[in-house]
Amino acid sequence: MKRTFGILFGRPLIVATLTLSFLATSVSTVGATSFTTTTKWTPTCGVVANPAVHFVSKQSPCVIRVRRGTNVRIKLWSGFRWGYPVSTSRAVVVKDISRDSIGVFAATLHATAPGRATIRATGTVYCKPGVVCPDLALLWSLEVIVT
Question: Is 53 exposed, middle or buried, given 0-12, 13-18 or 19+ CB atoms closer than 10 A?
C-alpha cells in the first residue's frame, strides 16, 4: 500500500509543491523590492535629492562628491531589514540613524574632512510571519568624495 501511494501521488505532489514554492517566491519578491516614499530621491543610490550633492557615477556602486561640512541624507529601500550603515573612513561620519520596527531605513552622512569614504549597509528581505520568502541579502554601498 505504501509503495502504491508513492507511485500514484509522489510525482504530482512534488511537482505541485515546487510550482507553489516558485509562485510564492515570485510574488513575495515582487512585493519585497517595491518601495514608496514621499521625498525625492535616487532609487539606484538611495541619496535624497540635495543641490550640494554632485553625482560622479550612478552605476553600482554610486559615487558622489560633496564639500566638507555637507550633510547627505540617505534612504534605504523598504522591504528589507537593514543593518547600520558604516563608513570606512573618518572623512564621512554616519549620524542621525532612523529606525523602524524592522531595521534602519534612513541616515545622515556628514562630510567631516577631505578624503574618500565608502558607506556600506547590508539588508535581508523582510517577510511577514507565515509567508514563504526567498533568502535574499543585499549589500548597499555608496562612495563619497569629500573636497
Answer: buried
Is the N-terminal amide bond of 114 cis, ω within 30° of 0? no
Encode pLDDT of 79-97 as tens digits: 888 999 999 999 999 999 9
Alpha carbon distance 144, 114 (integer Å): 10
| Cα dihedral 110, 113, 115, 117 in deg (nearest 10) | -30
* CATH class of the domain whose range is 2-146: mainly beta
Cell of 114: 577631505
Model pLDDT for residues 31-55, shown as the tens digit of each residue:
444 334 344 444 558 999 889 999 9
DSSP H or E stretch at residue 2: helix 2-33
Stated pTM of the model: 0.66
46 torsion bin: left (phi>0), alpha (psi -120 to 50), beta (else): left
First to last CA, the chain: 77
Can you count the helices (H) and strands (E) in the chain? 1, 11
